[in-house]
């Protein structure tokens, strides 16, 4: 769990941090959220092996949006994913990062907004006690849901690691 705490600490204390939201955990603070995840593992005696899955969703709408609108859009995507996971029995904590990078196109500086979601998902299902083992299939289910709910997102650059 120390690695999980370091991951949450990175997400929350990053200079790009914008917002945090939890699904299915104690919402008091990050420590309580992680302790909730740990309790589920202890309850089902699944404290060994992979503790969480870390997914990153980069939000790239097909058309340019104002930053405030893009962040609201990203929050909506986060709630869709988090509620889906909660219904399936998996606790999660989502972090929205808003990173701005300058790049040069034809000698003119421009700002590129990299708005993305870091999602920390408990590897143990709170309803069944089973571990999430086929993460690729699970990710495909999430992406199918997002494609249906958000056709305005750019789906050309889907990468699986």
Main sheet overview = 4 strands, antiparallel
What fraction of the residues are assigned to beta strands by DSSP?
25-35%
Structure annotation, total helices: 4
Beta strands, count: 4
Task: Please describe what this structure looks like.
By secondary structure, this protein is of the alpha+beta class. The chain has a single domain (2-149), classed as 2-Layer Sandwich (BirA Bifunctional Protein, domain 2). Helix content is 39%, strand content 27%. A four-stranded antiparallel beta sheet has the order 1-3-4-2, sandwiched between helices. A hairpin with a 2-residue loop joins strand 3 (92-105) and strand 4. The longest helix has 22 residues, at 67-88.
What's the quick description here?
The protein has 161 residues and is an alpha+beta fold. The chain has one domain: BirA Bifunctional Protein, domain 2 (2-Layer Sandwich), CATH 3.30.930. The protein is 39% helix and 27% strand.
Keywords:
39% helix, BirA Bifunctional Protein, domain 2, four-stranded antiparallel beta sheet, alpha+beta, 161 residues
Topology:
Elements: H1 2-13, E1 17-23, H2 30-43, E2 52-58, H3 67-88, E3 92-105, E4 108-122, H4 135-149
Antiparallel strand pairs: 1-3, 2-4, 3-4
